[in-house]
Write a structure and sequence with these properties.
The protein is α+β, with helices and mostly antiparallel strands. It is built from two helices and ten strands; from the N terminus they run αββββββββββα. It folds into two domains: about 55 residues; about 140 residues, Jelly Rolls (Sandwich).
């Protein structure tokens, strides 16, 4: 009987910790703090090195450079931070260099670092955007894949010739993960045990 009580108390403690973690994840999924490691384990960041990635053709072209990252099934992309250096070759524009980050079906966001810079050359770009402020938070699919496609807005040069180059830098995506099924099972199982224990105590009284 004593062992059972200790077991129930220990289980209640772990259930409380899990519930608190879920509460944090739901209460503040859009914060800049989502990028910081001291936040809930369900929130983290994905850093992508863009060094040497070519800007080839319009979106969907077979020649475009694509990167796939596993971020968790049905995870939400909540923010983007960038610190990059781009070169647009003569005949094309910096404002045409784009990246689309999406699920594997293609639903997502197209980002243009040099928006408005209708000229060629080399430029640095940096900044941070909370996607919640724009109403553009989106989920990846069940496969958990975040797809990055580097592409151009308009093909100015020959089809076998790059329009520009992502010279160096990083993109950092804020990611809010959906808890894994075992976490839900632990919480529900703990609550059921506590409920049954309470019923037994009331029945004895």
């Amino acid at each position: 009987m004593i062992r059972a009580k200790h077991l129930l108390r220990l289980l209640a403690f772990f259930v409380a910790i899990e519930v608190m973690g879920l509460g944090l994840a739901q209460a503040n999924p859009l914060s800049v703090n989502a990028l910081l490691p001291q936040q809930s384990a369900l929130q983290h960041s994905l850093q992508v090195d863009v060094t040497g990635i070519p800007d080839n053709d319009e979106r969907g072209s077979a020649s475009n450079f694509i990167l796939d990252f596993y971020v968790g099934s049905l995870a939400s992309i909540t923010s983007l931070k960038w610190d990059i250096n781009l070169t647009s070759y003569a005949g094309s524009y910096l404002s045409e260099m784009k990246i689309t980050f999406s699920d594997t079906v293609g639903n997502g966001i197209t980002f243009t670092p040099g928006g408005g810079d209708d000229f060629d050359g080399t430029m640095d770009y940096s900044g941070f955007q909370n996607l919640g402020d724009l109403g553009q938070i989106f989920q990846v699919g069940i496969d958990g894949i975040l797809r990055l496609e580097f592409h151009d807005g308009y093909k100015d040069l020959a089809f076998d010739e790059p329009e520009g180059m992502w010279n160096f830098g990083t993109l950092v995506f804020g990611v809010a993960e959906v808890p894994e099924p075992p976490t839900y099972a632990l919480i529900l199982g703990g609550l059921l045990l506590l409920s049954n224990s309470a019923k037994r105590r009331r029945a004895k009284n």
